[in-house]
Specification:
DNA Polymerase III, Chain A, domain 2, 3 domains, nine-stranded antiparallel sheet, 6 helices
């Protein structure tokens, strides 16, 4: 195998695929990246897998001889990152890899690709298309609410509900819930629900960020999503990521979302964030409790602790409906407020024993729910 490519392109490709490589004692070849040169279509592929997720990146370059090998992901990445931004000549013979770039020359031991796990091939008949940047925003607005423990495996992933022209994405850890709806283009996926592992979502966000830092390099601003029985494939630009799905039934979270509210408050988001952070200093350690008290024209943000003292801050707010109050985890509330990017937010509640809803005044497609702390 022999090919020539630019250091910049190889460096970027390795950064995309090598993130899922972890030290694997039982299957050491998973510490490697598979490099394949296809002389029939003049494509260079970088491939990595941890058996749960597989990533393939197509690299631009000139192929002089086809072939494939595997190489330690950390060694090749660390070395290529230090090379000059010039052409790299990559040559492999009997799993000995020679790399040359200007006055840099090195030999690296490779391993046969025969033992490298195959990346699954899925049927590509069922797919939809979504704007990459809308998709990234949607994922970022819910993934933080995923449960961090494995007690309920279905809560360790992100819920996807495919409908004819809308994709609903949601996540919950049973203490808070985030839901976002986005438009679908060219959809051939039947109405269905799936659960995508949080690690997969984090990887696709990382890959999108790699491209969005240089949006002009994108050939298309569309991401394609393909579904099979137990796998999902994301395809964007030169990268494909395939992942297993989580088997299980996602909880029917719609039943905890109130149909009607007794109190609605519109308030400046940044004012509320500042007041919550100030009062949070005086919340109880480990509980992070603050109280929001709503009266006509005023929102009071209050917290007290026997150890540190207390804080009471009055903010101007447009309060409609009943006077009301709720005690809530300030960290959870701040997570939702930080995702919303409008100047004004609306808080809705029934009473201090029911979930509190936070929405943007400018975005009807995002909903954030926080459970109260019951006294």
């Amino acid at each position: 195998m022999k090919f020539i490519c630019l250091q910049e392109n190889l460096k970027k490709g390795l950064a995309i695929v090598n993130h899922i490589n972890n030290k694997n004692i039982n299957l050491p070849i998973l510490n490697n990246i598979l490099i394949r040169a296809n002389d029939n279509d003049n494509s260079i592929e970088l491939i990595s897998t941890n058996l749960e997720i597989g990533i393939t990146h197509q690299l631009r370059g000139k192929i002089e001889e086809g072939g494939e090998t595997t190489i330690d992901a950390k060694i090749i990445s660390d070395y290529v990152n230090l090379l000059p931004e010039e052409k790299i000549e990559f040559k492999e013979d009997n799993n000995e890899i020679n790399i040359k770039c200007e006055n840099y020359k090195t030999k690296v031991k490779g391993e046969s690709s025969k033992e490298y796990p195959l990346i699954p091939v899925i049927n590509r008949n069922n797919f939809c298309e979504i704007n990459i940047f809308d998709f990234r925003k949607a994922l970022n607005s819910v993934v933080f609410a995923v449960a961090n423990n494995d007690n309920r495996i279905e809560l360790s992933g992100v819920f996807f509900q495919f409908q004819s022209d809308v994709l609903t994405i949601a996540a919950t850890d049973s203490y808070r819930l985030a839901e976002k709806k986005i438009k679908i283009k060219n959809n051939s996926i039947n109405e269905t629900n799936i659960i995508v592992p949080a690690r997969t979502i984090q990887e696709i966000l990382r890959i999108i960020s790699n491209f969005s830092s240089d949006a002009q390099s994108l050939e298309s601003d569309i991401i394609k999503i393909y579904l099979s029985d137990n796998q999902i494939l994301f395809s964007l630009d030169s990268v494909e990521l395939i992942s297993r799905l989580i088997n299980g039934q996602y909880p029917d979270y719609q039943q905890i979302i109130p149909d009607k509210y007794k109190t609605e408050v519109e308030i400046k988001r940044q004012d509320l964030i500042r007041a919550i952070k100030a009062s949070a200093i005086f919340s109880k350690s480990g509980i992070y409790d603050i109280s929001l008290i709503f009266k006509k024209g005023v929102v009071n943000v209050y917290a007290s602790s026997g150890q540190s003292g207390e804080s009471s801050i009055d903010l101007n707010g447009d309060v409609s409906g009943d006077d009301n109050d709720i005690t809530i985890n300030c960290r959870y509330l701040l997570d939702g407020l930080n995702i919303i990017d409008s100047e004004q937010v609306i808080i809705k509640l029934i009473n201090n024993n029911t979930p509190c809803a936070v929405v943007s005044r400018d975005d009807d497609d995002y909903l954030y729910i926080v459970m109260p702390i019951r006294n």
